[in-house]
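Example record

Each entry pairs one chain with its bound ligand, 1-deoxynojirimycin.
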Amino acid sequence: MKTPPQWLIFVCIIPLLIGVHPVNGQQRNRDMDNFIKELMAQMTLDEKIGQLNLVTAGEVTTGEAVSTDVESNIKEGKIGGIFSMTSAQRIRAAQELAVNHSRLKIPIIFGLDVIHGYKTIFPIPLGLAASWDMDLIQETARIAAIEAAADGLNWTFSPMVDISRDARWGRISEGSGEDTYLGSRIAEAMVRGYQGDDLAAYNTLMACVKHFALYGAAEAGRDYNTTDMSLHRMYNEYLPPYKAAIDAGAGSVMTSFNDINGIPATANQWLMTDVLRKQWGFNGFVVTDYTAINELIDHGLGDLQAVSALSLKAGVEMDMVGEGFLTTLKKSLEEGKVNEADINRACRLVLEAKYKLGLFEDPFRYCDEARAQQELLNPTHLAKAREAAGKSFVLLKNEGQLLPLKKQGTVALIGPLANTGSNMPGTWSVSADLENTPSLLEGMQTALGSQVKILHHQGSNLLADTVYQDRATMFGRAIPRDKRPEAEIIAEALEIAKGTDVIIAALGESSEMSGESSSRTDIGIPDVQQRLLAKLLETGKPVVLVLFTGRPLTLTWEHGHVPAILNAWFGGTETGKAVADVLFGDVNPSGKLPATFPQHVGQVPLYYSHKNTGRPLAEGQWFQKFRSNYLDVSNDPLYPFGYGLSYTTFAYGEMTLSTDSFKKNDTLQVYVEVTNTGNHEGEEVVQLYIRDLVASVTRPVKELKGFRKIRLKPGESQRVAFDITEEDLKFYNTSLEHVAEPGEFAAFVGTNSRDVQEKRFFLVE
Ligand code: NOJ
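Structure tokens for the complex follow.
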């Protein structure tokens, strides 16, 4: 490596010379400020604009455009960041070009979609959310950071905190589901996991909260589609998780693709400047999503020059892949459409991020081949992945205690998802080693050894339609197609099942049936698989459905016919072993749904925290004329938010309140005793909901305000306590003030959002 320039050495040793401890925040900020001031004084306009340019190395592309001339652009100082480049070696080589061959030797920031793990893949985010285990979620993000940072990366495009209540939207798989409170707690946990206490540490990544904002509310669940939403709903329901991530210190924010109330997010000054910076005090940088500036042309906001200027002025600092900033900002400056201060602001914020990451001190601190060898897929990480997968699974049905199975005899493992390793990591696992990920069959065989004999058959194709199947198995996730007639394939599978004790049907979605640009209008198990399932049930053998999905599915028929259903989402690298752990009783399932499962797609959006309407349906009713309901399906979900069974049973004692009336500044306690009344040790997520009964604006019928995950041995009890303060009762009123209005409230405690007890209390002045 070449010696760094003299000014750089000088600036870096100033703190040491004057004896300042590096953790002294204020001094550190002053040092950063001086350092960047000096650096920017030497930068040409082109070099400043270069810092705003994020290119893809083309290893992974998530849009149509691909960056070209990467090498020469680095040398010319035209690139501030690179994403989708992996491996310490390649990243080192690219960084060397920047720090040894560009005029000012400014290091590059290296980003990637490290969404639910880097090489060790954890369950998809929706699955992780189902664990309701914040320590676990934080640990998974920590491990992802340790692995990715050893491999040269310093920036992740995660967490994705978009609330979504529309299961048709494929990207619901990448977030934490429908709930504002749960989503906010997860957002914080993930930021803490990635960033640790010190962004400059060799094993942390800068987080990038996305997609700002409201991406999950796309109309009709169609990806990239328009969002039109009241401010009231935004502030109360959709914005809090982004804010929670910012409050937890997230260093960067990514814009969303969608139009929000007439102004696409990437050009939305109100959102990026007024809300994000002025109201929330965000001081990191904003990057666009993939070519999102260029897409403003199709949104109808002008040509590339116009939309690039608009985005910069609105509050974007870095342009992902589209090169609108690189190719037009200079002209816009000359024509007075942007000013130098706009460019300086953006350049400074990008440089500050690099400074905070310690890249000026040591541009190669994240590239360590030896560390990478030691960290990637190391046994401790894999053990955590197995634990996380087990905790993400949700037991949806278990009639007659069919599960857990005994570790003996022969099982038939049947279905198109039974032997496809490449689908186990789930969507958006761009760095996963797909070829070496064990399939469900392989993982189960490893976990069970010779104790259980497993016979396997594919049973059916993933989808009857070849074209649909091709779309649903992109990015190396192909599932072999059996070209024979359906009846012939099923007959062969039934033959295999004949001599077995139990059938495990591995059915559902492939990993690419959810994720980006994977919206569906029919959110059931594909009918070719359903027909297989019906035939398996006809054998009269016990059938366990192991469900793979990246979204809530409509399982009305399955619920009516299959005795046991375990929702495994996509569990990551260790899916197979984790499924064996749960099916055969080594792990007692404890996952709870982070999103409502509807009975029918026509009910979507269906979520527990809805408003009441002026004509609510009476409890327990299906249809009443002139009430808010449907003629053909009841209003109920198939499985409510927060729902999930266990091999054991939990009895809730009567909930009590410390008082039925409390003052602002005081605290009210809610208590409930929970007892494990079954025969297995198990974990339960005790949930607290609140309803504001009378307010100046309408309030949801229930809102999650707290939860505790407890572990109890058979016969053991625990008294769970929740504190309710004024803060928990606050909401944004019509003037967007965050207030708690005195009056009557209901508190609910229970095992899911439907099955709860209720007690009333008052907040008084
Ligand atoms: C597009 C996706 O919307 C975003 O989530 C991702 O981070 C970028 N592409 C980069 O891959």
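Residues 62, 113, 157, 210, 289-290, 516 surround 1-deoxynojirimycin (CB under 6 Å).
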